[in-house]
Amino acid sequence: MMTQSMSTSKTGARSAPDAPRKYQMEVAERAIKGNVVAVSDTGSGKTLIAVILLKHMVAQARKEAAETGCRQKLSFFVVNKVPLVFQQQTYIASNSDIKAEAVCGAMNVDTFDMEMWNTIFDRCELIVLTGQILFNILQHAFLKIHECNLIIFDECHHAIGNHCYRQIMTTFYAGADKDCRPKIFGMTASPPKDKGNKSFSAMELERTLDAQIITASYNEVLQFTQKPRERVVRYNQLEELSTTDLYCAQEEALQQLKALCESDPKFKTVLGAFEYAQLALGPWCATRIWKYALRGLRDDFLNGVGPHVKERLQQLDKAETIAKKIQDAPLDSSLSTVREKLKKVVEILQEQRESAGGFCAIIFVERRPVAHVLHEFLLECKQLGPEIGLDFIKAAVLTGHGSKGDISQHRMQLKEQRRILDGFRRGHINLLVSTDVAEEGLDIDRCRLVIRFDIKNTLISHIQSRGRARDPVSEYIIMQPVEDADHLDAIKAKENEMRQWCGNLPEDRVINLGGNDSDSSGNDSDPSGLEQMRELADVETIYVVESTGARMSFHSAVALLHQYCASLPSDAYTQLQPYFEVKPTVVPGEFECRVTLPPNAPVSEFNSGRFSKKSRAKNAAAFLACKKLHLLGALSDRLLPHRNKVLVDGDLMEEEFEEEEEGEADDASKSRSKKSMKSFPINQPKFWDNKIVAPTVVSEVESRVGCTRLHMTIFTLHLNPPADHEQLDVEGAGSDFRSLCLLTSQVLPKFDPIQLFFDEGSRWVKMTSIDQPMDLTAQQLEDLHRYCKLLYLNLYRKPVEMGSVKDGMPHIIAPIKSKADLLAQSGSTPDQFIDWEEVKAGAITTNAVDITESDLLWDRLKDRLLIEKGQMGRLYFTRALRTDLTPSSPIPDGIKGSRELGQGGKTFAEYYRETRDTTIFNLNQPLVEVSRAPGVEDLLQPNKNNTRAQKATAARFLVPELGLMCPVAASVFRSGSWMVSALNRLDGLLLTIDFTSELKLPISTPLALEALTTSELAHAINYQRLELLGDTFLKFLTTLDLYTRHLFLDEGQLSMRRTAMVNNKKLYYHARRLRMDRFIIALRNVNPHFFAPSTSSETPNTPGRRLISHKTMADLIESTLGAAYFSGGLDLGFEAAVALLGPIDGVNRWEDFGHTYYDRIHASNPNPRQFVPPPVFGDLSNVERSIGYKFTDLKLLAEALTHATSLRSQTQCYQRLEFLGDAILDMLVAKHWVEVYPVSGPGKIHSLKSASINNQILGVICIQLGLHQHIHHMSSALCNDINRAVEKLNDAMEDAKGSPSGELEGEFWEDFNYTKVLGDVLESVLGAVYVDSRFDFSVVQRVFDNCMLPVLQKHLSMETLKGHPVSVLVMRVQQDGCQLLTLQNITEQTTVELKSTPASPTSFTESDSFWSNSKSGPVSNPVQEYAVFIHEQVIASVTSTQVQVARKEVAKKVLELMDRDPGMVARYCDCASRVSKRARSPESSPSPEA
What we know:
Strand content: 5-15%
Shape: globular
Number of helices: 48
Strand order of the largest sheet: 3-4-2-5-6-1-7-14
Structural class: alpha/beta
Distance between the termini: 91 Å
Radius of gyration: 43 Å
Largest sheet: 8 strands, parallel
C-alpha cells in the first residue's frame, strides 16, 4: 500500500515534489492486461490509474467502432455516493478527452425510457454513476453487459453482501460469456475481510470482482510516505456540569419537545440532535443546535406534500416558540458551559499556536448539526482573544449532501464545497470542521493535524481520515472516552493484519517501487573478483575525458546518473530520477537492465545486455547512459551536470575601453557619477559639419565681393497636420506667428511635419525646401548673424555662442516676409523672401530703444516686443493701446495682481511712486496693455506644467514712458520660441539618418527617431515602447538560435544560456563597442551645433558632456531591434541583430534557422521511426481542430503535451518546446499591444503584456481549447490541479450568467492561481506549430489570432486593466503617508524594496560576438515565504514556490486587511509625511496684473 506525501503552500503551490509513482504505471499496465483491484491509501493516486486505464480502453473502443461500424462500447465509473458522481466526471473530463457524462437519481432516471438512454449512450463514451443506477440499466436491459468494455468500481470494498456492486457482478457479469465480459478495475484503501475467517483474507472480494488484488510493498511505501504521529486523547464523558439557569431552561424545553415528538415522529431528528449536544457537548452547544435543526426541518416540511404539511408547520411554530425561550448565553473564558470533550479540543489547538504559520487541520464529526455548532464554538473562542489562545484559527464548515432522514438545511452544493476547499488550500481557511465527506473523494491536498472527534469503528474510515494528515510533521488524534477500550490499538491490529495479508500476496502482485536489483542469492559479493573480471573482460568499464582527465568507472555510473537526473529542470510535480528495470532473460541465471531517463533528458532508454548479476546489469545500463550524455554535451567535460552559474570576466568592458577612459571628463566629474552612469561627449549630426562661411574677394582689381551659396528651408506652423500637396503658407497658424527660414550650406533632407504641443493643443511645423539656391554677400551674412544672436539673446535671456561669419556657422535663422508681400512679388528669388528690414533693424540696433510719442500708434506697436525699465529680464507682448487709461487713472478693480492687494483706489502713478520710488512725468500718455512673454519651453513635451503659461497670459499695463522697444519683432520672437523645439527635433532626425546610415539599416526615420529618444526628455515619443518590442524580438531570436543549434540541451541549460546572452551588461558592451552614445537623444546642457543652453534644468553641468546610464545604452540596442522589426519584419530585425551584435554562425538569413535545424535533426537521426500516438494522448485530431492547424509531424504535438512526470514516453517532455513557445508568445503579444496602442506609455504596454501572458489567462485559454484533456503525465497532484482549474472556470461561467451581460467580463481569472503547467502546454503547442510549419511565423501568427487574440480583445484593454496588487499596495500605503514598506523573503533573508530594484548581474563569458554563450544548469524552485513589512513589523506572509504568486498573494492579503481596518497603516507607521511645499521666492515688484 502507498500514501503519498504532499505539502501545499498557502497559495496552492506545492512545497514538495509530487514524484511520478512508478507503481501507478505498473498497476495501469497490469489493469490493461487483466482485471485488477488496486489497494492503496487515500490520496495515493488510484484515480490517476483509472484515467490511464480509461484512456487506453476508450481508444480501443473507438478503434473497434471505426473498424466494425457498430456503436462504440461504453465505459462506466461506478461510485457509492452521489457527490462523487459529479466530482469524478469533472476529474476525468478535465484530464482526458473522453466524452464523460454524470448520471444520478436527481435527474429522474427512473422515468428514462429506452429512447432516452440510447440518446445518452450515443453521445458519450463514459458514464459516471452510482451503482444502483448501473444495476437498474442492466436489469431493465437498456444496455447489455457485453456492450460495456470497462467497469470501474470506486471504493470497491463495498462489494459485499447485497450491495449493488456485488449484485452487478453476480447477476450480470458472472452470467456473461467470458469473451464478452467487460474489464473490471476496483479501487480501495482497505479490502474487506472475508466473513468467517479468523485471520484477515480478501479472497472473497477477488472472487466477486473476478480480479486480482495488486498493491505496493509496504517497506517500499515507507520511503515515499510521511506517516502521521497517531495518539489518543481521552476525555470524561460522564462529567457532571453545575446546574445553571441555562441548563434548567434546556431541561424544560427538552420535556416540551418530547411531547411534540410523540405527536409527530419527524421531530425525532431535532430531538436527537438536541439530546446529543446536551449530553456530549454541553448546554452552550445544545442552545445553538436548535437553529440548525429547526431551519432544516422547516425546509423539509415546506418542500413536502400531503395533508399533514399544514399541521406539521403549526407544530414547528410551537417548537420554535419553545426554542426562543432559551437565550444564547455568551461563552465564558473558563468554558464552564461546555463538556470536557470540547475543552480537550481547545487544548489540542492551543498546542498548535507556535506553528500557526503553517497550521492546517481537519476535525471530523459524524453529524452535520454538530459540525456547525463546533464551528460556532471555535469562532466564539477566537473572539475571547489571547485568553483562550485560538485567535490564529480561521475555521469553516465542510459537509456533504443530505440523504433521507437528515437535515436538509445543511446540504452544501459542490460549488460551495470547492470554494471552501480552495480557501483551505490557499491559507484563507486553516481549519475545517467536516463530516466524513472529507474522508474520501473530495480533493484535499494536505493537512498538519487531523482530529477524529467522533469515533468510527471501521478500518476504512480510519485509513481514509488518517490519510488526510500528509504534512511532514502531521499528527492524527482520536478522541475517546476514558471508560472505553483503546480504539487505536484495535484499529492498528486490524490494519497490521490487513497489511500482512497484502504483503504475503504472490511476488508478481506486490509491486516493488524501487525495483529489485539485488541478486537472488542475496549476496552479490565476489571476494576474489575473478568472476567479475571474466564477465567484464570484453566490457568497457572505465570512461576518461581526455581534455580534463575526468574518469567514470563501471560502479560509479549509477550515482552519476542519479545526479544528472536530479539536475534536470523540474516543477512542483516532479522528482526526476532514472527508472531501472532489471528482468531475467530467457537464459536461466542471466539478467538484463533497461534504464529509462526522464522525458526532458536528450535520450530516453538504454539496455545493458546480459549479465549474471542484476547489479552488474544495472551498472552497465547506467554506464552507457552517462557516456552518451557526455557525448551529447549534457554532462560537462568534468562529467558533471552543467552548473547554473559560470565565472565571468567582469573586467572585459573596462579593458576594452581603457584608453577612452583616460580621455574622459576630469576626476571631479567622475566622482560625482554613479557606478551605473558614464560621461560621454555630446555629438552633433554630421549635417552641421558643413559650415556657412563668409565669401572671399574674387578680384582685388575690381574689388568685387563674392557670394556664399545657401539653401533655404521654410518652417511654417500649422493648426492641423499639413498634407504634402499643400502650397507654401508663410503665415501658417495665424498672424501672431511669423514663418522662419533655416539657411544651410547643404540641402536639408525632407522630413515629415514636426508635432509640437502648445497649451491650446497640438500644432505642426512643416518644413518646405526651396529648390532654387540663394547667394548672399558677406554683409548680408553678417547682418543675419547679428540678428540671430539678438534673437537667441532675447529667447534665452543670455548670450548664445553660435559661431562667426569668419569661422563658420552651422545654420542661420531668418524671418520671412508676410504672405501679402510675397504674393505681390511674384517670381521673387529666395533671398527676397527674407524680411531684410527686420534683419537690418536688429543688426544695426541690438539694444532696446525708448518708446517715443510717435510710436504710440497701434500699427507701430502691435508687432513689437516691449521691455519695462528696471525689469530687464522680462519681455512683453502688446495686446492693446489703452487710450482710456493714463497714469492718472485709478488701478481698475479686478486686475490687480496678488502683490497689489490693499492698493485699492490708488492711481498707476501713485502705485509706481510708492512701490518703485519712480515718478511718472507725463500723466496724459495712454497705457499699453501687455502680456508676459514666456521663456523658451520644450514644446516636444505633451504634458507640461501650465503654471508659467497661465502667468504669461495675465493682463498687465505698461507706461510708455517707462518702457523700451526691442528690435526683434514680436511675431519673430513667438516663432523663435517654437523654432528652438523644431531645431531640437531636427537634430534628432539628422542623428537618426547618421545612425541608420552607419549601420546600413533601412529603418524608417520616424521609428529610428523613436528608438533613439530617451524617456527622460518626456517627449511624446520615446524608445520604451520599441525597447519592449525589441526585448521580445531579441528573446525570440536568441531562443530560436539556441533551440535550433543545441538539440540535446535541456530547457534549464538553454534558459541560462539565453539569460547570459541577453543580459544588460552584455548589451551595454555592444552599445559601447558601436559608440551608440553618439546617437542617443537625451537631456543635454547645450545644443551642440549652436551652443544654446538646454531648456531643461536637470542636465549635467559639465560643458559638452552628458551622463548616460548603462541601462540606457543597453536599452538602445533593444529599441533599435524593435524599430527594425516594425519597419521590415523578421528579415530586417535579423539584419539589425547582426549589425548590432555580430554575425550568427551558420545563419545568414532568417529562414536559415529552419534549414539548419532540420539538417541537424536529420544528421542526428537519419532514419526516424514512424510515430503513432499512444492512447494516453487521446484523439489528437481534436487538438488540431481546436487550434486550427494540421500537423505534419504528430510527434511534435505529442511532445508539446508530454509533462516531465510521464514514464516511458516516446517523446521528450514539452520543456524545450515551451522554451521556444514562450519566446514566440512574448513576441506575438508585445507586437499586438504595441500596434493597438502606438502612443501609450511604456509602463501601460508592459502591464498589458504581463496581463496577457500570466498563468491564469494562459490556463483559461488552454482549457477553452481543450488542451488540458490531452496532457500526458503521471502526477495525481497535477490531475487534481487541472481538475480544480476546470472547476474554477466552470464556476465563473455559471456566476456570469447572473450578471447584466450574462457573460464573463474583464480579468475574471485574476484570482484563479492556476498551475503553471496549463500555460506551459499552451506555449509548447505554439512552439510545436512553429517547428512543424518549418519555422513559418505567419502560421503561428494565424494560430495566435484564432486562439488567443479574441480573448485579449474581449477581456483586456488599457481602460479596464486592473492594477497589480503589489503596485496598488505601494500606492495606498504611500497615500497614507508611510514610506517604509518592504517585501521580504523571510525564508532566505533577502529583502526586496517595492520600488525599483536593480537586477543582480548575470554571469557569462564575454566575447566579441553576442552569440557566444556559456553552459549552465537549471534553476531550482524552492518553497519561499514572503512577508510584507511596515516599519520592520510583519503585516502578513505567504509561502509559495512561485515568486510572482507569493508577491501577489501577500499584497492582496494586506490590501484585504486595509479594507477591513482603514487605520491599520497609521498604527504601524510612525513617520510623518516628508512632502513639503516649497515656498516661492519673492520677486521684485511687478506691474499691476490680473
